[in-house]
């Protein structure tokens, strides 16, 4: 039993949440609700009024945050304390977007100079490639970048590049390879010209099977196109914290961009892992991305909890997960460029907070990280919104939308916005039986049929949502948005007293996978595993059912 669930505040929240009126009533009681439950920061605007809260709820949630010593924990992260207690590391992705004049000490060293040196190395390389000065082995400029990496070494570069498509440098294209399924790399290499292709191999550990295999296959492809071993240095660069392994692998020492142990993979896009982003959008826009995140860092570190955007969003998620039994959270991006963001937030949140022991190893007796999922609006309205409106699960939703489109065209953006706002309204107010019946008053159905259909049209409402707006999707607002969710994840982990920065849960699958790989390649069928695994391995070995 943890002290958290025994606390007075926790018990008060349990009692309080069960007696709160329907949101319809909360809006009717207080015409100022929107004004009092919205906050603006770093170019973002958060409307959190469509939540199952009143002022008492918020007071209790912020009290819970205070009892978790949240302010001290935030300071400890920014100060470079070793808060990743199982890997004995500081957590300093914030240092990656710090200003050159800052001093941030990690393990006794001011790390800002090496961050700045790496940014300068990136800038020189990006300029060289974009200007055409960097030539391939036949003297041609680079036209295509193939980014090879997985997890945080893939999602950040891929999704941020996708989100910033309006800012891409003309003449450069980028292809992302992550999965070890050969289809991924084969499809991406089709039609590319080795003479004008640059491979960026990104792996913090330089030990990830998928990335190493894909890089070796990329090298084979490159040499099969007529290039020689000496040409590798013109077409392969690496981003890693394991420079020795990269050099041993054959990467040219000058083409290795460093990163550091105090940057978690799912928090690393701000480091040289973001090199594909910078190659595509240029260093000025990459620095604007960093600056947006830095602005959110300053907001997070210096704003009192009740006005602190990441804290508000995190505590609302704690409210639903720990006091309303919700098990998942949906991210709905009403912007086509942001269509990949839910997948990015999946790794960020689920690999950080998918834990079940506290920092000191005590089993939790409360829910921790929810399932994060989602997609682009309005597509989801024609796929899973039925469940959001009339399903049995409570699934809090974040709606994210820029007020201005990069592609203004007729009524399109008006319709997008009206769908976005209409959905949050429908989730909140629902539809009563009486309203449903009234809507059928002119139908030709008999009274019994009307009552039946009306029953099926009832929507309980009281379904919570946040609406996050920005003027326009730019590198700066995108940086602030992603940093917002990073800090939201941090706050939840602080409340749950878990380590959000290790990922021991991914190790066993990798180990067993390596064992299975050996059995697949063995000279006899597998017999030592469980009957299912033996059978599956042997079916694969025979290659047919
Ligand atoms: O999924 C485990 C993980 O270590 C992630 O945390 C990380 O982003 C990914 O694998 C890739 O790791 P690396 O960058 O070391 O190849």
TrEMBL record:
InterPro entries: G6P_Isomerase, G6P_Isomerase_C, Phosphoglucose_isomerase_CS, SIS_dom_sf, SIS_PGI_1, SIS_PGI_2. CDD domains: SIS_PGI_1 (cd05015), SIS_PGI_2 (cd05016). Keywords: Cytoplasm, Gluconeogenesis, Glycolysis, Isomerase. GO terms for molecular function: glucose-6-phosphate isomerase activity. Pfam families: PGI. Signal peptide: none annotated. The active site is at 351 (proton donor), 382, 510. Its EC number is 5.3.1.9. Pathway: Carbohydrate biosynthesis; gluconeogenesis; Carbohydrate degradation; glycolysis; D-glyceraldehyde 3-phosphate and glycerone phosphate from D-glucose: step 2/4. It catalyses: alpha-D-glucose 6-phosphate = beta-D-fructose 6-phosphate. Its main location: cytoplasm. It is found in: Cytoplasm. Catalyzes the reversible isomerization of glucose-6-phosphate to fructose-6-phosphate. Belongs to the GPI family. HAMAP family: G6P_isomerase (MF_00473). This is Glucose-6-phosphate isomerase. It comes from Shewanella metallivivens. The gene is pgi.
